[in-house]
Structures are given as C-alpha cells and as structure tokens.
Amino acid sequence: MTTNLDYEFDLPEHERDNRKPARPGIITAEKKRPKTAQDYEAKIASALHTAMKSTAESEATVADAAAIIRYGPKLAEKAGDLANHDPRVRKAIDLITAPDNPYLAMAMAAIPLVVQIARNHETKADTEVSSRELRIPFLKSKKNPEGRKFRLRFGIRVRNKWLRSMTEDPRILARDVFSDPEIKKALEDRDIRVAL
C-alpha cells in the first residue's frame, strides 16, 4: 500500500501576499539600511523635491525636473549611505538642508535678486559690450595732465539656464510690479515717480 504525500494547499490571501521567499536571491534580496542612512536619504530627497518643483515651473528647465525625478532617488539613497559612513558628509548635508540655517536662507534670498539685476543689465548680443573710462590721477604726466586713462570693456549675460529660469524678462517684471495698485499707491504717497 502506498500513500501519496504530495499535498497542494492555498494560503489565505493575506498570508500569500506577505510571505518572503525562503532563499533570497538577486531580485528579492533586501538590504537593511541603518537609520542614519535613511534619515539623510530623506533630507536629500526633500532638497531634490524642492529643486524639482522650482525647475518644473519653467519651460526652460522642465528637462532638469525630469532628470531629478528619474535620477534623484538613487542619488538620495547613495548620499544617505555616504552620510552614514562619513561624519563630514552628514555635516555638509545638515548645513545645506537645515531650515534654520541663516546663511543659507540669506543666500537663497539673494541669488534671485542678484541674477535678476544681472539679467536686467545684460547686453543684447555677445558683440555688444559696455565700456567705462577710468582715470588714474596719480599717474599724471606732461602728456596726460589729468592722469592716465584706460577703458574697461565688459558684457553681462546670464547663460546658466537654471539661474535664468529664476528671472523674468525685465520689461514684463517692471510692468507687473509697477502696475500693481498697492505699489502704485505707496509710490504716489511717497512722491516717487516711475519712468514708465
């Protein structure tokens, strides 16, 4: 007499979905990561999220947002692993991502203003340059009784597309700001005239 010991049975659905394979392989291997690595991954992911939002808002930098979405998670994970390994990296990430860092907050507030002013004064073409004559009074001579003069030539151009995306066309910016009723009234109350 023989007995067939092959049984087939189904696990309840809630157990079937939660069970882990007996032999983890390449596909199913899970790597336990330290809490420090996970915490710093989250900090980098948050910074990348902020960058992604600002780049997604401009047509000129929307491809940058796509790159952050595609490659950012792996960067955040590896940055977290590196932070777990190196205390200097942890310090750098803390400095960059700290919401209460007054130096970073001031720099983030100053960058758009500086870049917008540079764009307001950029030259129209690469060949167009501004020039300024400077006089050095202590280099007076019989030939140059007023002092020696030399001309500085320079051109301003905001070429970086990320920085440029922070700015607006100067004419549109001026129109938007100076057509705001509250700003108009405040300027009129102080007797400030705008050349528009």
The poorly predicted ranges are none
The main pleated sheet reads as: 2 strands, antiparallel
Number of helices: 8
Total domain count: 3
Dominant shape: extended
Hey, roughly how much beta strand do the residues contain? 5-15%
Spatially, the strands of the biggest sheet line up as 1-2
Q: What is the CA–CA distance across the termini?
A: 106 Å
Percent helix range: 40-55%
Produce a short descriptive summary.
The protein is mainly alpha-helical. It has helices at 13-18, 35-56, 62-85, 87-97, 102-120, 161-165, 170-178, 181-189, and strands at residues 130-136, 148-154.
Would you write up a description of this structure?
This protein has 196 residues and is mostly helical. The chain has three domains: 33-98, no CATH class; 109-116 and 158-196, no CATH class; 123-156, no CATH class. Helix content is 54%, strand content 7%. The chain has eight helices and two strands. Strands 1-2 form a two-stranded antiparallel sheet. Helix 2 (35-56) runs antiparallel to helix 3 (62-85) and helix 2 runs parallel beside helix 4. The chain starts with 12 loop residues before the first helix and ends in a 7-residue tail after the last helix. The mean pLDDT is 78.
